[in-house]
Write a structure and sequence with these properties.
Layout: H1 2-35, H2 45-74, H3 87-100, H4 103-117, H5 132-157, H6 166-172, E1 176-182, E2 187-193, E3 199-209, E4 217-224, E5 233-238, E6 247-248, H7 255-259, H8 275-296, H9 299-306, H10 309-331, H11 338-365
Antiparallel strand pairs: 1-3, 1-5, 2-3, 3-4, 5-6
Length: 366
């Protein structure tokens, strides 16, 4: 039984490592695919698949760590690994056997002493995977998918996808960009102002006459920079096969890009044109704070954090939560709650950074 438990402990250890590598790789791939598909038609199958892999590995790692901790705590019942016996102990046993016992009793005494000395490894075995250099390199590499996925999610939030998923549905049906004419007096005109009260546009319901449409199209909550008037010409997006869906109007968006969706990592225009800038900013923040704190922290503290079930449970919950919250965006069904997703994404980026600050400050205070 002892040998089985020890082998189980080793298998769990390697399972934890594989889950860590899987989370890192899958999150990076999913983030890159999402970064380049902001103008593409959902569902974003590639990002969804790799997102599920990342979420599964992120949740599987703390589960395996808790099981491993349980195995470690009960391992004393099935001792297996012999603890090295010092030379003095062997000499002492031999002398005792020569003085008061026959050779058979001496062998039995040594066997019983060996049993009492058997132990269970409480720490990771020495080797390249637990060396101080690798611990710090590993922690620095872990910051890469954090920056990539954070940029991808914030890019999705800023891509102009409306909450009812109209744009995504139109893209799936073959969206077409066109120029329409406001056929009737705009209804429900509302001024859009910023927090300081400055006017930056108008939202209204428009009835648009489109050349290729048999009937006028409704554009609900159409955004225009100027106050709309009857006879104005506006750019719009619509699906010829589904005229009942109406039209999508937003003069801050490029509907021509929406009508020709394709994967492009850093497009020059359209909803993903600012992703490169966003990714650079996040990498700068990561390198400015995360990298120095990682290098300054004690490798033992970083190693402890990487193998602590409670810390990895927090990480796993954040990664899985962010993926589940952004899953509607990847599916093209809209964003149910931008605020919650923004907070969760911010936590995904800031929690590891704050933990690095904590360990770095603790190292300096020692």
């Amino acid at each position: 039984m002892g040998k089985f438990v020890y082998l189980l402990y080793g298998a769990l250890t390697w399972g934890v490592r594989l889950c860590g590598v899987g989370t890192w790789a899958a999150a990076s791939v999913a983030g890159i695919l999402a970064l380049g598909a902001l103008s593409g038609p959902p569902p974003l199958d590639g990002a969804l698949t790799w997102g599920w892999v990342a979420a599964g590995c992120a949740v599987g790692r703390p589960v395996l760590l808790w099981v491993r901790k349980g195995v470690d705590e009960v391992s004393w019942r099935w001792p297996y690994v012999p603890k090295p016996v010092s030379v003095s102990a062997r000499v002492s046993l031999a002398k005792q056997g020569e003085s008061d016992r026959d050779p058979e009793d001496t062998e039995n005494a040594e066997y019983r002493a060996m049993l009492r000395e058997r132990w269970w490894p409480q720490e990771e075995p020495e080797g390249p995977l637990s060396s101080p250099v690798w611990v710090k390199v590993r922690r620095c590499l872990a910051l890469i998918p954090v920056a990539v996925t954070t940029a991808a999610v914030f890019g999705l939030l800023g891509s102009g996808l409306n909450e009812d998923g109209l744009v995504a549905r139109m893209q799936q049906e073959g969206a077409v960009a066109a120029v329409g004419t406001v056929a009737e007096k705009p209804r429900d005109v509302r001024e859009d102002r910023d927090s300081e009260g400055a006017l930056y546009g108008y939202s209204s319901d428009l009835v648009l006459q489109v050349p290729d449409a048999e009937e006028p199209l409704w554009a609900r909550q159409a955004y225009t920079e100027g106050k709309p008037q009857r006879g104005d010409r506006v750019e719009l997006l619509w699906a010829p096969g589904q005229p009942g869906w109406g039209a999508y109007v937003d003069e801050t968006d490029e509907v021509a890009v929406r009508a020709e969706p394709r994967w492009e990592l850093f497009p020059a225009r359209g909803p993903g044109e600012h992703n490169l800038f966003l990714l650079i900013i996040l990498f700068v923040v990561t390198l400015a704070f995360g990298l120095p704190l990682t290098l300054a922290a004690e490798d033992d503290d970083l190693h402890e954090q990487a193998w602590a079930p409670w810390a990895q449970t927090v990480y796993g919950a954040i990664v899985a939560g962010v993926f589940l919250l952004q899953r509607p965006v990847l599916l093209g069904t809209g964003v149910p709650d931008n605020i919650v997703l923004t907070v969760a994404t911010g936590a995904c980026f800031l929690v590891p950074l704050f933990l690095q600050i904590f360990y770095g400050v603790r190292t300096f205070l020692r």
